[in-house]
Amino acid sequence: MGNSALIVIDMINTYDHPDAELLVPSVRAALPHLTRLIERARSEGTPVIYVNDNFGEWRSHHGEIIKTTLAGKNAELVAPVLPDDDSLFVVKARHSIFYETPLSYLLSQLSVNHVVLCGQVTEQCVLYSALDAHIRRLRVTVPEDAVAHIHWDLAKAALRMMERNMGASIRNVGTVAF
Amino acid sequence: MGNSALIVIDMINTYDHPDAELLVPSVRAALPHLTRLIERARSEGTPVIYVNDNFGEWRSHHGEIIKTTLAGKNAELVAPVLPDDDSLFVVKARHSIFYETPLSYLLSQLSVNHVVLCGQVTEQCVLYSALDAHIRRLRVTVPEDAVAHIHWDLAKAALRMMERNMGASIRNVGTVAF
Amino acid sequence: MGNSALIVIDMINTYDHPDAELLVPSVRAALPHLTRLIERARSEGTPVIYVNDNFGEWRSHHGEIIKTTLAGKNAELVAPVLPDDDSLFVVKARHSIFYETPLSYLLSQLSVNHVVLCGQVTEQCVLYSALDAHIRRLRVTVPEDAVAHIHWDLAKAALRMMERNMGASIRNVGTVAF
Amino acid sequence: MGNSALIVIDMINTYDHPDAELLVPSVRAALPHLTRLIERARSEGTPVIYVNDNFGEWRSHHGEIIKTTLAGKNAELVAPVLPDDDSLFVVKARHSIFYETPLSYLLSQLSVNHVVLCGQVTEQCVLYSALDAHIRRLRVTVPEDAVAHIHWDLAKAALRMMERNMGASIRNVGTVAF
Fold first, then answer.
1. Tally of structural domains, chain B
2. What is the CATH number of the domain that holds A21?
3. I need a labelling partner for A40 at 20 to 30 A (CA). Which of A62, B12, B64, D116 fits?
4. Residue range D24-45, pLDDT digits in tens
5. A96–chain B Cβ distance below 8 A for any pair
6. Contact B154 A161 (CB under 8 A)
7. Are C46 and C73 in contact (CB under 8 A)?
């Protein structure tokens, strides 16, 4: 058996990067599922770990990053999925949630061997993180209705790669078991 | 500017794993291009680095792995791309050529900042290695006629991901510049 | 030539761990030198990077960690060396400043190839960080009057190890060249 | 409980580097204890893993490295501790046995959570490897009669650091329990 953690990837976001126009509709569609999934994790006592880009803001901490996104024009995409007082927070500088971050140390402290990945972007960070989780021998679940993409065809290919090549279980939020 | 290296991925192979049936025709098609590319790198003095799975053979060294593959039924897929006396060799245990291998140290010793990736499998090790090279701020080129795939549609998606999201230059062997 | 960065290790500290009694006098002695070094780095435009333990506080950010230490009984050891608005901040979970942190990525973004290590503990984090910097081919300077120890004899041995085996330049604050 | 592995560090060696003159007598003294320890591990079925520098020989494999050392003038320091057919072999390029090597992957495959470190150099690779094992939450034992040093005082300090700061059990070969 073992323990699960819910990993919320890059949802604290100002959405002002080049591809945001393509990304935002997908985030909007995923948001209710994502919110439901976070609520379920919280109510079942599953650790919720936010792993988020710092956007090169080495001077700021995540309190400030949250404030900035809530003051921006896409605050309604951030407000529903904010960390609460029990949420854990890991800052990343680059693509994967594992690369040069203390996440694998934190997971081992929590005896977690199963990660449920949600957030964005399916064919980028989510794909890379599923790979890095699989390499580290963690079991991976990706609810496909709680991840957001920029290009639908690449996202679809990414989900197949995760399933075929990284042993990930691809399902929807309703059938995720922590 | 900077220095280039040609990385030959997982070509020392017995091809007796589950997906080999799908993989072998693609290897066969890539082989003449791959051979030409290796020859060009050698004649131009570009370092050729074999990075190869050890197939769980922690008792063997790569001399033995080569011998095994040459004694197998798919020796004709290995013989044309054997390392020569100048080739460098790095053993990997897991998917990416960088994960828990000394490759990035070796590249920095050689002052390499541009890697040309060839070999297999396009939508697996080649994709993961392109990502890990990009994360480490190396420039990446992938000649699409010198990489082999298991599933053509996933390989195509992988090549687009490398180009769009990892800044890789996708071209063919004839136009690769070391 | 190249660029330098000043790395301030674990100085945001409540000093309530088991060895604090031995450590605090050494911190007190190092503090004026450390303060002077930080001021010089700031006035010369050398990046000052705080790398600090998060004390297992995965819920907090470094703004909160600073607040906690300033509210504690050893605030006078923290107040003189606080980060200013230009300081960079990297959180670590374990011993070395490099292990599972984005520090090496940040240094490469800043084109830093020379790190000046100050803070604590000489025979622990400072030693481990000097090793990890040396392995990553960074030049290392350690001003021995701006680092604090728990055991003087181990600290002395650690400084000799850094000098002999990690190519570190051991000097005092007055002769550090950024 | 858990599984142990015996790690033999850098014993396949030509001893022609600058500090060899200081190192060789210590190797000679450690050799009978080391041999006894390797024999016991083999007879008890404990995996014996050689982790050895490749001396920048990226063209050679470990079969060739062994041949070179056996042809050298210090062959009698290598012959008693050669790998047998069951020994596992991991090549490293830099100081620690873990840095950019697949050792932690291999240990996790073997379900090893306790490493017994022997070989050389106490105040260098052995110290660094003990640290990196401790960071990765492995239990560490170092038999002080089966490790060799260049400087006795630094070695002594290194052993105290391993015991105090890395939770290592420092003992002699006779009392090592796999």
1. 1
2. 3.40.50.850
3. A62
4. 999 999 999 999 999 999 999 9
5. yes
6. yes
7. no
